[in-house]
Amino acid sequence: MAQARGKVTIDTEECKGCGVCVDACPPKCLELLPGLNPYGVHPARYTGMNCSGCGICFYVCPEPGAITVYRLIAPKVAQPPMEGSHAATL
Amino acid sequence: MDEYQVIESKSPVFYDKYERKAELQHQTHYCPGCGHGVVHKLIAEAIADMGVQDRTILVTPVGCSVFAYYYFDMGNVQAAHGRAPAVATAVKRSNPESIVIGYQGDGDLAAIGTAEIVHAANRGEKITIFFVNNAIYGMTGGQLAPTTLVGQFSTTSPWGRRPSNEGYPLRMAELLATLEAPVYIERVALCDNKNIMKARKAVRKALELQRDGAGFSFIEILSPCPTIWKMTPQEARKWIEEKMLAVFPLGVFRDRKLAPMADGVPQTTVTKLLGLDKPLEVVTRPMAVKDSQPDLTVKIAGFGGQGVLLLGQILAEMGMREGREVSWLPSYGPEMRSGSAHCHVCLSKERVGSPVIEHPDVLIAMNEPSLHKFSKMVEAHGTILYNNHKLPAGLPPCEAKIYCVPASEIADGLGTTKATNMVMLGALLELTHTLPRETALALLKAKVRNVKLLDVDCQAIDAGMACLRKQLGSSTDAHAHDGELAPCS
User: Fold this and answer.
1) pLDDT at B21
2) Total count of domains within chain B
3) Within 13 A of B174's CA, how many CA atoms are on the CB side?
4) Residue A69: its chain B contacts at CB < 8 A?
5) Who's near B59: CB < 8 A, 6+ residues apart?
6) Domain count for chain A
7) Testing the interface with A: which of B8, B10, B21 to mutate, by most A Cβ within 10 A?
8) Structural domain boundaries, residue A26
9) B8, A58: Cβ pair inside 8 Å?
10) pLDDT tens-digit profile of B73-87?
């Protein structure tokens, strides 16, 4: 399996458990928790696999801050230091 | 260790905490799966990206989204039901640099507020309206909305909406697209990922158009209401796709640039319009009214158009200038001309208790019906000034003294019957001697802008005085007036 390109964190206190994100997620990497949160709903969570970092779950979620989407920063390819590169920081 | 960057997170346009209640300050008040939250996020994102948060004003409606001001950290005005476009108009016109957003539901915009949205759109107000259409009244518990689909059940259409009884669903985007002024009208839906991203684009475009001063923009958003529709959030999204789209087709209904409209309003100030830019005449009031000057109550009656009410006003204002307590009580029909009109004027040393006069000291009867109608009301020692040569036949006897002052005729001789009331004013001044002629002239000078008319008015006053003086002189010497009158101007 290819490495996940992104990840999602979900605030279980803000999530109302509507499940729209679970349905909308293209790689199907979200699920509703079997347990209840303090407000009596099954909040959504990231399964930990396959997130592409597309951000769709964020847009379909009705809560302003329940979902945060991250994308993996491509590992930097080690490059030989260029001459005068420090000048760019000026 | 993998490194991540945040690509989507809570917009800074939202407050960190929502202080609507003591508890649950991290959640909106919307039901799970509601479309409002999504629309809120799309608006917030666009506002943040455009960098206009500090000059955006949100006008919130009545309905589920009434509490939007608890969420958006920007200017907020909460409007009366349906009046968001009217309020937004005022906000935008008084703050042209602001981004003004009206946020309305279908009960708010398409039912009680139909007039406001139509006229705001027709005026091309440079505002943006987000119309969240969920085909039902949500907050009040599921009554039929103008946008409810045919056959859709609601608490007020328990057999489903029947066109024969409740009419057809109202298509606001199409309706507004028949108007000339709007620059951008689009209908979007929150039914699936693709359409939500389309809605995102539409929201952004509408706001950018406003930022650029383009004109009126309107985005209708078909939005799920799982609670009232009695569906799961997923079913509700499907229902939009399967049922609502057939009635409310998506698309752009208007997207055009308006040619800049010539501003036909002459540039002036209110002060100038009202003539307040000239130095005001300072009226010095006498410290106290002489006790010897009796109180006076006058009833003036006639046809509308004879200057009945104006004469009363002038009399009252003269009284004010002379330091009297005054009242002026008009009574007239809806007609501007030829209906009957009368007014009561009190000039008093004491504060006026009631502006209604049952038994006036003086009745000015500008026509025959008024004489018939009111002559009996006049005090026994009172006087009637009647606008004619002689008394009409069949006038019941009355105790008051009657003088015939053919005011209309005199005014006509001076060039205009408009001055009839001024002839009567002259007669009244001569009769009562409670108000000086000079006060009348000073007042007219301040009120009448037309120089010609002012001259006629002054002549009319003098003619009225002369007319009555003649009659008084022949009956009694009590009020005889010696000497020549000072010239008018």
Assistant:
1) 81
2) 2
3) 8
4) 6-9
5) B76, B77, B78, B79, B84, B87, B88, B91, B100, B101, B102, B103
6) 1
7) B8
8) 6-72
9) yes
10) 999 999 999 999 999
